[in-house]
TrEMBL record:
Protein origin, superkingdom: Bacteria
Pathway membership, UniProt: Purine metabolism; 7-cyano-7-deazaguanine biosynthesis
Catalysed conversion reaction: 7,8-dihydroneopterin 3'-triphosphate + H2O = 6-carboxy-5,6,7,8-tetrahydropterin + triphosphate + acetaldehyde + 2 H(+)
Cofactor: Zn(2+)
Presence of keyword Iron: no
Keywords, ordered alphabetically: Lyase, Metal-binding, Zinc
Matches recorded under InterPro entries: 6-PTP_synth/QueD, 6-PTP_synth/QueD_sf
Record-linked PANTHER family: 6-PYRUVOYL TETRAHYDROBIOPTERIN SYNTHASE, PYRUVOYL TETRAHYDROBIOPTERIN SYNTHASE
Protein name (database record): 6-carboxy-5,6,7,8-tetrahydropterin synthase
Organism this protein belongs to: Megasphaera elsdenii DSM 20460
Similarity remark: Belongs to the PTPS family. QueD subfamily.
Amino acid sequence: MYTVTKRMEVSAAHHLVLDYESKCEHLHGHNWIIYVTCQAEALDRNGMVVDFKKIKELVHAKMDHQNLNDVFDFNPTAENIAKWICDTVPHCVKVTVQESEGNVATYEL
């Protein structure tokens, strides 16, 4: 089994829709640190699981320097973002999203 992991940083803003009072209900931004792990039993014709550039393009195109509430049709929590990335990137098996120091969410197949 081949495994690759891409680390990237994304600057984006969001606010959360919550059923309790929180500062996070107000628009704010993060410099998200995201790890995307992909696996395959065989490499493609280029000798890759998936090109690192492709992973970055898929995530950055949707998220970088955006208000995430405007681009997603779900509440943009770190958990929901991790799942969206995993569903979007080919061969993805695990995504870790660090919203801020000490606040990390992981989605794994």
